[in-house]
Amino acid sequence: MSLPLFSRRQVLKSGAAALGAATITRVQAQSPAPIRLALVESLSGPFANTGEAVYRNLLWAVERVNARGGIALPGGARPLQLDRYDSKGQNDEALSAMRAALDGGALAVLQGNSSATAAALLDGLAKHNERNPSRQALFLNYSAVDPVLTNERCSFWHFRFDAHADMRVTALMDVLKDDRGVQAAYLIGQDYSFGQAVLRESRRQLGQLRPDVRIVGEELHPMGRVKDFAPYAVKIKASGAQAVITGNWGNDLTLLVKAAREVGFEGKFYTFYGNALGAPAALGDAGVGKVIAVADWLPNVPTAESAAFYRAFRTRFPNPADDYVHMRMQLLVEALAQSVAQARSTEVAAVAWQMEKAKVSLAGRSGHMRAADHQFQQPLVVGVMDRQGSPGVDFDVEGSGYGFRVIKDIAPAQAQMPHSCRMERPA
User: Fold this and answer.
1) Where is the Leucine-binding protein domain (predicted)?
2) Does the 35-163+315-378 domain belong in CATH 3.40.50.2300?
3) How do residues 142-155 score in pLDDT, each as one tens digit?
4) Could you tell me which CATH class the domain 166-295+380-414 is placed in?
5) Coil, strand or helix: which one is 172?
6) CB 140 within 8 A of CB 348
7) Do domains 35-163+315-378 and 166-295+380-414 have the same CATH topology?
8) 168-208 pLDDT per residue, tens
């Protein structure tokens, strides 16, 4: 007996649905599980712009790894997956976010904007790894540059991909020592471990390299809580300083340089992060020839490979406000991908042993991990702000019309510094 037309259609639809569901289930079963990376960063609050800049950089790096098929492992290649966790600029929120990420199976926690947060996460991760040997994770640090993190507080699970504060100060001082226009300097920074380290090392190196330079002011201010830097700028101008040395980052830097311009300060700024996040636009012509920044890479590094790399980033993120690319974050993801592939496993200790030996290159820039303290060794560059179109300034920053011309390129062997790490490694 034949079924009515309506019933036959229902049977066919039901069969097709069942077949489709079975196909989806098989595809899902065959799709390799992603290797999860957890970004724990300020994605809201006064430093949200810095967290979002980090996310764009890491996302771009992850996308490149996945575009070439992921990471080859026994059983098939696996893609990377970058998950976002908002620390809201608070250490307790960061620790809570890390616990959630670890419960979710993250292979690595990635953080950097705040050395105080990095120290808290490092302690928390060490305890977690000791208590949970089957759920261990790495801590990959791209910006937390307090020197202590790879010295007295070094850890087998922690790898730093940025030059630490003393290394960056040394690069800046390599320029300032020859700047005879500077006879008086003002030191200012954020009042936490990193800001304190910058001022301490700046004072030490000035005394050694330029004992003729007077330090006419030195102060620390609350991090992320100062809305009006005019009182600080007035003091800087009144001090007679020809240069300000600061490790300030994010809005604390942008507001500082803006206030300095508004009170008529005409001296120079020797900075860690003066090359983006609004600082060049805030200064305008007043910053030309007067803002010096140290970085692991700058868009105007004078090579064709570097230019192509930067253009590729701007193609991926065309909004001028999104223009802040970090070579070190790209190298971090490349080093992780290389280490997982060489370990032939996502077992965390095995990956860490390979990470200790990582050597990576991208767009003509190379670096390697120093096994003794897990401090990445890479070139550093120092640039000075100038108008786009000036010699050596093909690219501007954030559509501002101002970019940074490279005036010093420091090889890894010159940038490296001794360490006091006594690494404890698992058996």
Assistant:
1) 34-388
2) yes
3) 999 999 999 999 99
4) alpha beta
5) helix
6) no
7) yes
8) 999 999 999 999 999 999 999 999 999 999 999 999 999 99
